[in-house]
Amino acid sequence: MTMLPFDDRDGFIWYNGEIIPWRDARIHVLSHGLHYASSVFEGERAYGGKIFKMKEHHERLLRSGALLGFQIPYSVAEIDLACEEVLKVNNIVDGYLRPVAWRGSEMMAVSAQKSKIHLAIAAWEWPAYFSADARLEGIRLDFAEWRRPDPATAPVASKAAGLYMIATLSKHAAEAKGYNDALMLDYRGQIAEATGANVFLVQDGKIHTPIPDCFLDGITRQTVIALARSKGYEVIERAIMPEELANTQEVFLTGTAVEVTPVREIAHYSFTPGAITRDLLLGYDEMVRKPG
Ligand SMILES: Cc1ncc(COP(=O)(O)O)c(C=O)c1O
């Protein structure tokens, strides 16, 4: 499959308050964000022209910047409007939005207190490619060699670009072995999350998920926990060791991009996506696509 490179597409990008042609949305090579990972971003989806949990994403974007010591110079309401404008000018109904903020070029050293904070927002089409039945076949994960760091080591609640370095390494290693993604343990050896999604286990009819104390407490994670509880399932947030996968019947991931994605294998453990995964996958699909 040939991929259209992301810097050579038609369309428009919102860049520091203006809508500009897609190909003109450039940064200088001497940007602090590029050299020192002083960058935070969001991943959001629009369904039927409406951005799901838009306010929550933009509140998290501002919080992520604050955790890296910078203030994004736009309010949540301004970013909401900017995202809606990006969808409109690009005629996107079902798509993915990527706001990104970073420190600019005024200072090029570890200390960059006076650098300008930039914000850009791009969006591209992302229709539903696979039916629920195809998705229910499940994906395959390997264990990652890299671990999610201790909250004393990194600002783990920030959706910060730097935290994705180990995610890319882990996903590439898993893909090289024929897997779809990697399951990351945390610094204590507990199950943490996949490289871009949270994880849930079904054991004897109950849903278990790790406490998000060293990784992102995903907006989809919170949505699916509420959905599961509203359907009468018991959801338990607790420390989970990888050996417990032996007593686990179903596993699924949650995230803006993956929505609810069943998992059929994690290294030598196998699962059968079952009734609870199916119920939540369909329930989430229905919720995000609900008009109004
Ligand atoms: C590392 C990581 N964990 C979890 C998630 C899920 O977060 P959300 O449901 O807010 O998309 C994401 C995706 O944003 C992610 O990149």
From TrEMBL:
GO MF annotation: an example: branched-chain-amino-acid transaminase activity
Biological or metabolic pathway of the protein: Amino-acid biosynthesis; L-isoleucine biosynthesis; L-isoleucine from 2-oxobutanoate: step 4/4; Amino-acid biosynthesis; L-leucine biosynthesis; L-leucine from 3-methyl-2-oxobutanoate: step 4/4; Amino-acid biosynthesis; L-valine biosynthesis; L-valine from pyruvate: step 4/4
Keywords: Amino-acid biosynthesis, Aminotransferase, Branched-chain amino acid biosynthesis, Pyridoxal phosphate, Transferase
Signal peptide, first to last residue: none
Domain of life where this protein originates: Bacteria
SUPFAM superfamilies tied to this protein: D-aminoacid aminotransferase-like PLP-dependent enzymes (SSF56752)
Necessary cofactors: pyridoxal 5'-phosphate
Family: Belongs to the class-IV pyridoxal-phosphate-dependent aminotransferase family.
Function description: Acts on leucine, isoleucine and valine.
PANTHER family: AMINO-ACID AMINOTRANSFERASE, AMINODEOXYCHORISMATE LYASE
Name of this protein: Branched-chain-amino-acid aminotransferase
Source species of the chain: Kiloniella laminariae
Higher taxonomy: Bacteria, Pseudomonadati, Pseudomonadota, Alphaproteobacteria, Rhodospirillales
Underlying gene: ilvE
